[in-house]
Amino acid sequence: MAPFNPRLLSDGLNRGPRRKSAEEYINGVLSGNRVILSQAITLTESTRPEDQELASQVVHACLPHAGNSLRIGITGIPGVGKSTFIESFGQLLLERGHKISVLAIDPSSERSKGSILGDKTRMEALTREENAYIRPSPSGGSPGGVARKTRESIILCEAAGFDRILVETVGVGQGETIVHSMVDFFLLLMLPGAGDELQGMKRGIMEMADGIAITKSDSGNDKRAKIAAADYRRALELFPPADHGWKAEVILTSAVTGMGLDEVYSLLENFQESMKENGFFEKRRKGQAVYWMNEYLSELVRNRILENRDSRQYRQEIQERVTGGTLSPFEAAAMLLEHALKDRS
Amino acid sequence: MAPFNPRLLSDGLNRGPRRKSAEEYINGVLSGNRVILSQAITLTESTRPEDQELASQVVHACLPHAGNSLRIGITGIPGVGKSTFIESFGQLLLERGHKISVLAIDPSSERSKGSILGDKTRMEALTREENAYIRPSPSGGSPGGVARKTRESIILCEAAGFDRILVETVGVGQGETIVHSMVDFFLLLMLPGAGDELQGMKRGIMEMADGIAITKSDSGNDKRAKIAAADYRRALELFPPADHGWKAEVILTSAVTGMGLDEVYSLLENFQESMKENGFFEKRRKGQAVYWMNEYLSELVRNRILENRDSRQYRQEIQERVTGGTLSPFEAAAMLLEHALKDRS
Question: Model pTM?
Answer without folding.
Answer: 0.58
